[in-house]
Write a structure and sequence with these properties.
The chain is an alpha/beta fold and 225 residues long. It folds into 2 domains: 1-68 and 145-225, 3-Layer(aba) Sandwich (Rossmann fold); 80-144, no CATH class. The chain has 7 helices and 9 strands; from the N terminus they run E-E-E-H-E-E-H-H-H-E-H-E-H-E-E-H. The structure holds adenosine-5'-triphosphate.
Length: 225
């Protein structure tokens, strides 16, 4: 199947005298899991924030994802603590789906992430892993074309991490979404991603790009960061 590229260029960002990006350019692939790896401080969060317009690019940005809807999965879950899991999901559904469809959509995604039986629980009653499952459901419930994930599995304990990554993998294989995935964990990157962009140090350049999943190589990636 032909890959559709999404180019973002003219990325420029300095914080005072610290130049993070100077005419940086990145190509993402539509409906793929696009991973971004790089040393701490190379600008991964800055890049995500520019793409999602949380911070402003210093110059005019050329972005082929400019008008696309984005949902997010962060390391911390950002669920609202004083409403139930179901209501957290319903908050997203309310503005995007007809009332008659909402219950079924909520049920479908809570079942997919394996927490339907917790729908009436409040987030603080649940483990970090269960909350992150709710977070994943919420990101997919939103009719976004792009899902931005910033270290989504970092604070999940080892025993549930693999399970949650598998849930994500199963859903993303069925859904058409373009994922932009930042992580420090190379094994996680190899397991979940369709391509891997390695960023160099600031002012940041694209150092390496791997897009053949069958040739992902842990050692090579490790040595390239
Ligand atoms: N608001 C800010 N003010 C000043 N400098 C900043 C600001 N935000 C980021 N920086 C600097 O910009 C550079 C890139 O930061 P950024 O957080 O984007 O990197 P990162 O690759 O996401 O790092 P990490 O992997 O540690 O999360 C770093 O040198 C950081 O100190």
């Amino acid at each position: 199947m032909e890959e559709i590229s999404l180019t973002i260029k003219n990325i420029n960002k300095s914080y005072n005298e610290k130049v993070v990006f100077k005419d940086f350019e990145i190509t993402l692939y539509k409906n793929k899991v696009n991973c971004i790896l790089g040393k701490s401080g190379c600008g991964k969060s800055t890049l995500l924030n520019i793409l999602s317009k949380i911070i402003k690019n210093d110059t005019e940005l050329y972005s082929e994802i400019e008008d696309m809807q984005i949902s997010y999965i962060f390391q911390e879950d950002r669920l609202i603590d004083w409403i139930t899991i179901e209501d957290n999901i319903n908050l997203v559904l309310k503005n995007n789906y007809k009332k008659s469809d909402r219950e079924n959509i909520c049920k479908k995604y809570l079942k997919e992430v394996g927490i339907y039986e917790y729908k009436e629980y409040y987030p603080q009653m649940l483990s970090g892993g269960t909350r992150q499952r709710a977070n994943i459901a919420r990101a997919f419930v939103y009719p976004s074309q792009i899902i931005i994930m910033d270290e989504p599995f970092k604070s999940i304990d080892i025993s549930s991490k693999k399970q949650i990554m598998n849930i994500f993998k199963t859903i993303i294989q069925k859904e058409k979404r373009t994922v932009i995935f930042v992580t420090h964990d190379i094994e996680e990157a190899i397991y979940l991603s369709d391509n891997i962009n390695i960023l160099g140090e600031t002012p940041t350049v694209s150092k390496l790009f791997f897009n053949d999943k069958s040739k992902f190589n842990k050692e090579l990636i490790e040595n390239s960061i």
